Amino acid sequence: MSLAAGYPMIAIPGPSPLPERVLRAAHRVSPDIYGTDLAEMNVRVMGQLKRLAGTEAHLAPYIGNGHSAWEASAANMFHRGDHALVITSGHFGRSWAEQVSQMGVIVETLDCGSLPPDPGVLAERLAVDHDHVIKAVMVCQTDTASACMADIPALRDAMGDHPALLVVDAIASLGCAPLMMDDWGVDVLISASQKGLMCPPGAAFVWFSDKAAMRGRTDLTTPYWDWHLRANASPDALWRYWGGTPPVQLIFALDEALRMILDEEGLIATWARHAALARAVWAAGDAWGVGDTGIRLSVADPGARAASVTAMKLPGAEALRAWTAEQCGVTLGVGLGAEDPANALRVGHMGHCNAAMILGVLGAMQAGMVALDIPHGPGALDAAARVIAEPA
Ligand SMILES: *Cc1c(COP(=O)(O)O)cnc(C)c1O
């Protein structure tokens, strides 16, 4: 017998659960794309996206996923043959480095394995770059594969007065964990619609500082990816913002989702909710790991764990994922980038998630461990419940 009928739970690190309100907002026929209503909504969404990122900088939107924002930003920051330094803490940082290097940028990586970026190592590397060859330091705030979290202000401090741009991929963290682009001195910020922003995939965003804008156009800048054209579009020129037909239904979705985050819940409360839900997942993971079970959270230091996704080693993870999907309607994330992916998984807790959803996901996982005879320590659901009961 399966108990999976009912509301499906998607606990993967993106795309994240879609609020009904966001779906309803998007569910409409396209209005006149040359009319003033949509243009006004678009301008409002751009303003909200700047609020979300804590910035008054420039913003270029793209129809595309996170990978498109990687390419868009690189096409504006670099000449072919420029040097970039990518600090990697997992699969996503490494893929980003690879993509940018295929564009003709000379990429050096500071590989931290699955550990969070080390500001000391960055400072040492930049200290010997006497000629300021490195044009950009690039880092994922959350590497969604290893589920670790970078300390962006510490990395900015480590850069001292080196003139490289600080480029942050916040695809898996914006709207989930604190990020203040201007206060933190981030020059280029990258995100996408389908994770913390609670929208369908299909829109990507690049915010960039005056300092980044001063690079002008490079020999990698093609008209479609040119961020100046989009960021400087006149308010009624939707085709300019989006490089063609705007993603109409996504603009409605974004308008609703950003209202929910910024004007209703409030960004600080949204961050606090993510932090509490994350701690509930960690508490369960730690309890399951007691004894010789082999279950272990991938990031040992709680201060270096992501607020939006948790990765763990879990013997039998592949079978457990299949069981929770078939028996409980709960989809867990694959062990992307893990040493042994069949025995690793990730739990997404980003965007439109509440305590009941997370307790439900953890309960389904434990039921699966019982059903499949996967050894696990006791008290995980109690431990998670205690975090929910006393979130601060
Ligand atoms: C999801 C993700 C990406 C890739 O985004 P796509 O939309 O799948 O192209 C890149 N970086 C990070 C940190 C991510 O979490």
In short:
Pfam families: Aminotran_5 (PF00266). The protein is α/β, with parallel strands linked by helices and 392 residues long. Helices cover 42% and strands 17% of the residues.
Give a topology summary:
Elements: E1 9-11, H1 20-26, H2 36-53, E2 58-63, H3 66-77, E3 83-88, H4 91-102, E4 106-111, H5 119-127, E5 134-140, E6 142-143, E7 148-149, H6 152-159, E8 165-169, H7 181-184, E9 188-192, E10 203-208, H8 210-213, H9 227-231, H10 238-242, H11 248-265, H12 267-288, E11 296-297, E12 309-313, H13 317-328, E13 330-334, E14 344-348, H14 355-371, H15 380-389
Helix pairs in contact: 1-11, 2-11, 5-6, 11-12, 12-14, 12-15, 13-14, 14-15
Bound molecules: pyridoxal-5'-phosphate (PLP).
The site of pyridoxal-5'-phosphate (PLP) has 13 residues, from helix 3.
Jot down its keywords:
alpha/beta; Aspartate Aminotransferase, domain 1; globular; Aspartate Aminotransferase, domain 2; 392 residues
